[in-house]
């Protein structure tokens, strides 16, 4: 594995390996036995969009592993505008040991990986958010003890986060149900690829439009913002379409008693999720946020540890 661009590139075994490594690294860190596995390695972090979790968790991951991270803001690195994406990749490869990039167009992170001689990690594109997907699987795995067979219900926009959950759920034998309003379903190529992956694991991918039917018997209820970064001009219109997909007490009542309520954050409280549910006993959203750190340490060690 040179790069980490989409979960769909992994085999079920490789994905399980990353989860096991994340669990082991987390346990060591919690016991105060973290090791400098990436001593003096440097991660260049290219951000074309804002971030709290991705920026801080990658920075802390490198610090805890004995290395450093450099934050490169949208004003500094203007991919494809100040210079070509290929040239950014070639130049950064001469300075840093790995690149993490948060971009608009997925093709930009694909191009970075193509032209960089160092590993490239997708820190979110319009198409997928694999670091989040790995983190979500880690969180469910920790809380439930297993992944295969669980019913993971994603409610809302069929976006980048939904795509990574579909790929990750398919690779781990989960039954992923996505309930979206008409016109906001996940892209056809994502559904097709996730179904192919699910065939090998006994998992499944189901698309529905009825949020209550979807939530029935859910082991995990997941949602994300109705308007992603870059879709700000559609936010008002989306606020008229998505309210039936809100995770609230009534919807929670459809799910299993121990259902895990998840959100990648940032949350828009009162829109896709209500305060009572987000702050309630089923919510694991802040454990999930913490796990970004542990999951990404596994990705970094996998990509850089043997270099
Ligand atoms: N979940 C997530 O990626 O958060 P940030 O946008 O704050 O990085
Ligand atoms: N779907 C959201 C996720 C943010 C972490 C976005 O792309 O803005």
Helix and strand topology:
Elements: H1 12-30, E1 42-47, H2 53-64, E2 68-72, H3 85-95, E3 98-102, H4 106-115, E4 120-122, H5 130-144, E5 151-155, H6 160-171, E6 175-179, H7 188-199, E7 204-208, H8 211-215, E8 220-223, H9 235-241, H10 249-252, E9 260-263, H11 275-278, H12 285-304
Parallel strand pairs: 1-2, 1-3, 3-4, 5-6, 5-8, 6-7, 8-9
Bound molecules: phosphoric acid mono(formamide)ester and norvaline (NVA).
Short description:
With 307 residues, the protein is α/β, with parallel strands linked by helices. The chain has helices spanning 12-30, 53-64, 85-95, 106-115, 130-144, 160-171, 188-199, 211-215, 235-241, 249-252, 275-278, 285-304; strands at residues 42-47, 68-72, 98-102, 120-122, 151-155, 175-179, 204-208, 220-223, 260-263.
Characterization of the model:
- By secondary structure, the protein is an alpha/beta fold.
- The chain has two domains: 7-129 and 291-304, Aspartate/ornithine carbamoyltransferase (Rossmann fold), CATH 3.40.50.1370; 132-288, Aspartate/ornithine carbamoyltransferase (Rossmann fold, 3-Layer(aba) Sandwich), CATH 3.40.50.1370.
- The protein is built from twelve helices and nine strands.
- The chain has helices spanning 12-30, 53-64, 85-95, 106-115, 130-144, 160-171, 188-199, 211-215, 235-241, 249-252, 275-278, 285-304; strands spanning 42-47, 68-72, 98-102, 120-122, 151-155, 175-179, 204-208, 220-223, 260-263.
- The strands form two sheets. Strands 7-6-5-8-9 form a five-stranded parallel β-sheet. It has a four-stranded parallel β-sheet with strand order 2-1-3-4, sandwiched between helices.
- Strand 5, helix 6 and strand 6 form a beta-alpha-beta unit.
- Helix 6 (160-171) packs parallel to helix 7.
- It is globular.
- The model has no long low-confidence stretch (mean pLDDT 97).
- The protein binds phosphoric acid mono(formamide)ester and norvaline.
- The site of phosphoric acid mono(formamide)ester has 9 residues, from helix 2.
